[in-house]
Amino acid sequence: MDIVYYVATSLDGYIATDDGGVNWLPVPDLEGEDYGYTEFYASIDAVLMGRSTYEKSLEFGEWVYPGKPCWVFSRQQIDINQPDVTLTSRHPDEVVAELKARQLKRAWLVGGGRLATSFRAHGLISEYIITIIPTMLGKGIPLFTPSDRLEKLKLVDTQTFEDGVISLRYIQQPKG
């Protein structure tokens, strides 16, 4: 089971404004260019996110993660009114075990610096796809919150787009 943290960040390391806003993210100007999103989305079997990301995604109107089972991590009870969405307060290890039991191969860890930090702290993220947007937010929700975990990563792919956006793909450094 691969957990992929696929996320856009500002050049100064923020994934959203303080209120969770992402309207600073660029809309590709080039016809047919989506920064690899369509190909990535086709490669995943499931979606994992925190409550704040889930609630923010509902503001787009139509469910933006169709056709994929989704787990929303929250310690609070919230209304879930999307098919294939499961609310969970379980530990990330337990949810990953469930994904494996369902024979899912690849899950997208969406948004949420805190949730990503939790997955990272338990060594659950196998791949990072970080897309750097040439914008400085100055403040906001950080890509990661502080952690004691040291990780050695291997850069396996880069993509540069005409508008200055850069995508970096890292995997866990092989042990040994």
From TrEMBL:
GO process terms (BP): riboflavin biosynthetic process
Domain Bacterial bifunctional deaminase-reductase C-terminal intervals: 4-166
Cited Pfam families: RibD_C
Recorded GO MF terms: 5-amino-6-(5-phosphoribosylamino)uracil reductase activity
PANTHER family, sorted: 2,5-DIAMINO-6-RIBOSYLAMINO-4(3H)-PYRIMIDINONE 5'-PHOSPHATE REDUCTASE (PTHR38011:SF11), DIHYDROFOLATE REDUCTASE FAMILY PROTEIN (AFU_ORTHOLOGUE AFUA_8G06820) (PTHR38011)
This protein's name: Dihydrofolate reductase
Species whose genome carries this gene: Oscillatoriales cyanobacterium SpSt-402
